[in-house]
Amino acid sequence: MNLSSIGASSFVRFGSFGAIATLIHIFVFTMLVEKFHVSAVMASIPAFVCAMLFSYVANSRWTFRVDVDHGSHLPRYAMVSLIGLGINAMITFIVVDVLALWYGFALMVVVTVVPLITYLLNRRWTYRLAGSH
Predict the structure, then answer these.
(1) Quick check: 6 pLDDT over 60?
(2) 17-21, 50-54, 62-66: which range is least confident on average?
(3) Among 6, 10, 13, 21, which residue carries the largest CB count within 10 Å?
(4) Could you tell me the residue range of the domain that residue 112 belongs to?
(5) Residue 95 and residue 125: Cα distance in Å, rounded?
(6) What is the 3-state secondary structure (H, E, C) of 84-122?
(7) What is the DSSP letter of 62?
(8) pLDDT for 132
(9) Residue 39: which residues within 8 A CB-CB, separation 6 or more?
(10) Are 81 and 52 in contact (CB under 8 A)?
(11) Cα 24–chain centre separation
(12) What is the pLDDT of residue 54?
């Protein structure tokens, strides 16, 4: 798989918004763990949701450049996000609770793996309705 096969320009936009969403995720996650003493697994959920909401708006408008039909796009985007959330929670659980490693290692894996998977799913399924490629 190369960048042209996944849409290089949309992937760059997705990556840019993903970087912002990642910062949102890290900020929320770290605040919940460090300031409010929430477990890493539980903190990963609102962190992911906050980042996902930002991503939905930004990617609908600027990455995939569609007139968003919330009735058809939002349920698909939510499904992809739930898949991403499940992968996120699973990675965090394995790294923190099973392997007993620092939560930062889980974050490094999450912010690398989950965005790539969700980009490909959104590009090939969520926004296919609008004919975006």
Answers:
(1) no
(2) 62-66
(3) 21
(4) 3-130
(5) 30
(6) HHHHHHHHHHHHHHHCCCCHHHHHHHHHHHHHHHHHHHH
(7) I
(8) 44
(9) 33
(10) yes
(11) 11
(12) 93
